[in-house]
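Hi C.,

You asked whether I'd gotten around to modeling the 388-residue construct. I have! Everything is below, sequence then structure, no commentary in between.
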Amino acid sequence: MTTAPAPTYLDHNATTPADPRVVEAMLPYFTGTFGNPSSVEHAHGHAAQTAVGEARSKVARALGARDNEIVFTGSCTEANNIAILGSARAQPERRHVVTTAIEHPAVLEPMRQLADEGYELTILPVDEHGLVHPEQVAAALRDDTLLVSVMGANNEVGTIEPIAAIGAACEARGVLFHADLAQVMAHGPFDVAASNVHLASVSAHKAYGPKGVGALYARSRGPRARLAAVIFGGGQERGLRSGTLNVPLIVGMAEALAICAGEGKSEGERLSAMCSEFAKRVTGAVDGVQLNGHPTSRIPGNCSLSIAGVEPLALMHRLRDVASFSASSACSTDKVETSHVLLAMFGDTARARQAFRVSPGRFTTAAEMTAFTDALIETVDELRRIAA
């Protein structure tokens, strides 16, 4: 009996498979070097602490940061919460915060928590490309503005935001600037200083590392990003993230970011060409196709399309044995509703409702993309014939 081939994975903006080199780096820390890095008095704990220190240096290099500016967390979501809530607790006299309508829930929800506590929250709109304009941010700043949070790149439509310009506007007014870099780090190193970023959140599993680990960059000087603890316990990670450090995952995250820093640019060129060819072929074979997101300022490996008259969930159902891709953010799969990102860009329109995202990655081959493109074009024709 012949086993059917597994579907091609085309949802790398949701999560990535761990690179085998990352898995290899992690394995010794599950069984061999398994000590608690807080137990530095004995050899096992010291060895674990040394591994964490080396990992911290790798993560810092990927961000152009100092080692003491890296705080390991359990996820990028946790890093976002510590950055937003921690900065508010540290400067309670400042009562105004700013973000955008297309942020991930991991940013929007802690911002809304502050609003529930009496802070004034400004949520900035975006244009039809999902772009946040720096002058909008500058105009929103006030004397009591505490923090601005804008993502480095959008997970649904791939638009890269003008982080450096936004950060400069914040720096000029003495306002902390936080960037969620979850979708950025897979494509090469990021320079937090050159981008005027004071706080940054990073995910491992979006960059071919393990799930369950993230990191927060908190600038140590010029100016220092002041944070108060929002998680309490043993005082690990400068008291900002108490809890026993997960050494294997931290080692894996560091290795993943180091690989991305070295290979991300060249790999990005391949993925950009792959997505461009995919969009070109679909647009050429099917009428009523629109590309979502910025046409040029976008991360590699993201192609969001809307096809007139085609329901994305029907498309996904028909193609589930061919490929795995997404019709909405992976963090809201329990809800069948139009994404808040697409609503912010297009309003409650057919284009917003008909959007789907294809995101190839490091291990996606050209042959797999060609086969998927052929199947998608054929399936669109079938769905339209049924609806006719």
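If it helps when you're writing up: The chain is about 40% helix and 15% strand.

Thanks,
B.
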